[in-house]
Amino acid sequence: MKERRFIKFKIKKFVYKKQLPYFFLLCGCYFILTPASAYVSIDVGKAHVRESQMAIQPLILSGPSSASALEIGSRIFKIVESNLSTSGYFKLIDQEAFLEKPGEKAFEPYPKDPNGFIWKNWKLLNTDYLVLGGYSFKDNTVYLDLYLYHIPLRRKVFQKKYTAPSSLVEKLSHKICNDIVKVLTRNQGIFLTKIVAVRNMEGSKKELFVMNWNGKNKKRLSFHRSTVLSPSWSRNGKYIAYTAFLYRKSIKRRSGSLILYNRVNKTRRIVSKKRGAHLGSDFLPDGKSILLSSFLGKGYMDIAKMSLVDGSVTPLTRGPYGSINVEPVVHPKGKNILFSSDRGGKVMIYSMNMNGKNIRPITWQGSYNSTPDYSPDGKQVVFSGRAGGRFDIFIMNADGSKLRRLTSSKKTNGKWADNESPSFSPDGRYIVFTSNQTGKYQLYIMNILNSHVTRITTDLHNYKSPKWSPFFN
Prior knowledge:
Number of helices: 3
Number of strands: 34
CATH superfamily of the largest domain: TolB, C-terminal domain
CATH topology of the largest domain: Neuraminidase
Structural class: mainly beta
CATH class of the largest domain: Mainly Beta
CATH architecture of the largest domain: 6 Propeller
Number of domains: 2
Shape: elongated
Helix content: under 10%
C-alpha cells in the first residue's frame, strides 16, 4: 500500500470583490456569474501533497418535479462527484457519514439563514470543502445555483448561477468541476479536454476516434476503411494530424498519407503523400509547421519539418544508413526535439536541436524505448520502455535523469501486461496510456502524483496511440 502524503497548504490572503452579474457563452451554454457577492480567494499552495476532504451534497430540485428533472439532477451530481474524485485534488466524504441530509438545511449557513447549515456538523467530519447546490428544470433548460464553502475558515469560497439546455448537461457538469478546481487551486481543470486514439474495426482496419477525457461520448473521426496511425494535436486544439493508408491510382496500391483534420469545420486535407509518412508527428508551437517521419533517403526513415503554408520540407535527420528515426516530439517552448531511433543498435530516445544538430541519447536502459511525450512545462518526459520482457510506462527528467517506472500490472492469467503509448494531460497531472491487462488494449489514465489508475474504456476493442488534447479556448 502506498504511503499517503498529507497536506501542507497555507492561506495567503482573502480577497473580497464586488462584482456585477455578467453572461458568457461556452459550448453553446449561457452561464451566468452573479456577484458571489463577495468571494474568498484561497491559495492552496501545494494542494497536491494530499487530497483535501470534500463533501458534496446531492442537488436539490425546486419547482415542478418530474422523472426528467430528477434524472438530470442525478446525472449532474454523479458526473461532478466522479470528476472531482478522479481529479486527485479531493477525497470525497461518504454521504452515509453526513450529519445533515440533502434538503434538510438551506444553502447559506446559520445564522445568516435561520434554517442554514451548521458549520460544526461539517467540521466534525474533518471537511475541508463543502459543495451545495440546487436546481430547477423548465422548458428543457437547467437553472442551477452552486455554493462552495471552506469549512475550517467558515468562508464562502464560490457562488455561481449556471443556465444550460438539457442537451448540454454533461458539458455543464464538466464546467462546474473546472470552476471548482480553478478557484481552489488556480489551475485549469481537464474536464472539458479530449483524447484522440486509434481503434481497431472489422478485420485489420483501424479508424480514428475522439472522446471526452473520461472515455465517454466517443465519436468516430475517420472513415477511410483502412489503417489509421499516429494522431497528434495542434497546440490550439483546432487540428488533428494522422496517417491513413489511402489507395493511390498512380501506384495502384495503398500508401501512407499525412492528413490534417480540422475539428472546427470537420474537413480534412492531405498534406503529405511521401512514402512511409508518418510514424508519429508533432506540431511546432507556432502551428505553421509540423514534424513527420518519412523515407527521405534510400533505406532509412528520417524526421523532417514540413511547412503547412507552402508544403516545403526540411530534413532534420539523415540516417545513419538503414536506421529509423521516428516519433518526433517538440519541446513545449520549441527548445529541442525528442525522437525514437535504433541508430545505436537498440531503439532508444534521442534529443536534438530544432535544426537537427547535437543528436544525443537520453535513455540507455532496457531494450526498447519509444513514444516519448513532454510534460506541458517541458521538465519531464514519459515514454514506453521494454524491461523484464514487458512494456511499461516510465517517467524521467527531460535530461534523462531520475528515471522511474510508473506502471506494473498483470493480466488475469497472472502474466505481465504491456503498458504503452503515454501522453500527458495539458495540466501535467495525468497521463493516458494503453494497457492489455484485460486481454484487449484499453485506455487508462494515471494521476502521476499518487499513481492512481482509472480505466476509461470498457469495451472489446483495441485502442492504440492515445493523445490528450490541449486546453480548448
